[in-house]
Amino acid sequence: MIASWGLDGALEVGIAAFCAGEEPPSDDLFWERLTGAGVEPWLAERLLVFLPMAYVRRLLPDVTYPDAVRDSRGQVFLAQEPVFVAAFDRAQYASRAEFERIAFRSSTFAVINEALNAGSQLADLELAEPVLFKDLEPAVGGDGGVPSPQSMYEALLREHGIPLDDDTRADTKLVVHPAPEGVVMAQVDFAVSHPALAEPWLVESFAGHGTTWREAIGRAVDMFSRGALHPLIDGLLLPGAAADQVQREQYDHPDGAFELVLGAQITLFAENVPSVEPLLDRLLEALRAEKLSRKVHGLRLFVAHNDGALLNNEVLLDSRPWSGGEAVVAEQPALLADGRVATRVFGLLVPVDA
What we know:
By secondary structure, the chain is of the alpha+beta class. Helices cover about 35% and strands about 25% of the residues. The longest helix is centred in the middle third of the chain and has 25 residues, at about 215-235.
């Protein structure tokens, strides 16, 4: 439901704005956090109003709630407000910390708490329609300044002719990270499920930053498109549909032959970075000691150095940390001896039929 409204990203941004900091934000601070990062006023206002309203209904479901709120123009039916509908859906997955920050600030929560203190029972409460302090701004077409990662992911797949059905599923999750003032940081987890995979889901995560959510999410999606999309398509979803965007090579393993379908090497912080191929060859050699089923496996390397010192070392096999691979990386020198450099590469190991 959330993705169908195109509000998956907006809700996570709103939730993060409520939960950031040691103390709950004032309405003004919440507004500044959103509109200062490019969220359009009509959407920021609805997140401010409807997230707490939806969360308290999930937290205290035994109460009878009204179907509408009121402003000076009359009733606003909640079922006709996509932000409320999507927020109510999202709230079923909320953490305790989210409930404490979001549901507790609702005026509805205060009314219920007062009634309970007076001796009422939750199941006996039937609340009146709340009255908004100001009229809601008219909703505007578009994403409100927060692109939907799910919609962008599905659009990339459609562009390559990938159908989604019960067997082939695609999902995303936006994770908001702390960032310096004036900057926002978005991590997008891109997941795919397919019968040929060794695990139910394969997940690749990419981060992007910017002064607005549109910029940050756009960068994360662009990184995914450059680094992981084409191996997923050509090695799993529709072989041959992205043949000019991947490298293929034979890989002999004790459990049988595979074909490595490799995406582009992505480098950060430096230019003229040598190929990561020698390091990848060592990883593939070490992988021969691991048991591999005759399914499609994901292999991802991310390594970062500063002046030759190892900063980050992450090797994932089927989206899980592979300690043997990380041990190999730790023993290898940096791609550049001076300065900061990070390299990422992702590929699929596709079993070759006997």
